[in-house]
Design brief:
The protein is 30% helix and 16% strand. The protein is of the alpha+beta class and 229 residues long. The protein folds into three domains: 83 residues, Rossmann fold (3-Layer(aba) Sandwich), CATH 3.40.50; 85 residues, ATP-grasp fold, A domain (Dna Ligase, domain 1); 39 residues, no CATH class. The strands form three sheets. It has a three-stranded antiparallel beta sheet, covered by helices on one side. A two-stranded parallel ribbon has the order 1-2. It has a two-stranded antiparallel sheet with strand order 6-7.
Length: 229
């Protein structure tokens, strides 16, 4: 939205009741604030008509997908979206044509996948979503199949993840290095791919925990979380 304002465009933000305060306090970002009883009301005929009447283009983010769902966005949300709505499901690692499929089609290397946890022979990261907060991922690292079973059972007992979500998780070989996100933008108008920039995200309390000496890490009883912020 800040970028849209920089380009001289009008902006509107749709919020669920109780979440509009940030936009009211930083009013430069949004020209108009529409408060909905529930975020799912975005797909209601009334709201969709208003969006179309005002020539609004939706700039989607993951929250939109989580709260509205794939099917409504793909089939019944009759409002222009910036990007390809058919690609949203690629975010889900359990989807047949997911990000790994796209990487392979583009001939881009990615970490080795362990389709069966019994085949874990080296450090790996288990990418599974949280049980209650579907927007968040409860990633955890393992070093072997026995370590996988122990940590998975513990997280299931704690109510952090579900057995079903664990079955749909992906297990990647742990790659040690500097983590960065490279951002590109493709426009079908000119059939051109532009390199936008590089960003680095932090993982909740994981980064601060890793900054501590090993002795202090062992002394602390902290549940380390791998959630991007």
């Amino acid at each position: 939205m800040d970028g849209a304002k920089d380009e001289g465009m009008q902006t509107v933000v749709y919020c669920q009741k109780g979440r509009e305060l940030t936009y009211k306090r930083f009013s430069r970002v949004a020209d108009e604030i529409v408060v909905l009883k529930k975020f799912k009301d975005m797909v209601s005929p009334k709201v969709q008509k208003n969006l179309r009447d005002t020539n609004t283009i939706i700039v989607p983010h993951r929250s939109l997908i989580v709260y509205l769902g794939y099917k409504p966005i793909e089939n019944s949300f009759k409002v222009p979206i910036f990007g390809n709505r058919a690609l949203f499901q690629a975010e889900e690692r359990s989807h047949k044509k997911n990000q790994y499929y796209l990487l392979e089609k583009a001939r881009i290397k990615h970490p080795r996948l362990f389709k069966n946890p019994k085949n874990i022979t080296k450090p790996a990261i288990v990418k599974v979503q949280e049980k209650k907060r579907k927007l968040e991922r409860a990633f955890f690292t393992v070093s072997s199949y026995s370590d996988y079973k122990k940590k998975a059972e513990q997280k299931i007992k704690q109510g952090i993840i579900s057995k079903k979500d664990l079955e749909n998780s992906s297990i990647e070989e742990l790659s040690i290095g500097t983590y960065m996100n490279f951002n590109y933008f493709y426009t079908p108008i000119s059939d051109y791919v532009d390199f936008i920039g590089i960003e680095r995200r932090l993982q909740s309390n994981l980064h601060d925990f890793n900054a501590l000496p090993a002795k202090q890490q062992l002394d602390l009883n902290v549940d380390v979380q791998n959630i991007e912020v």
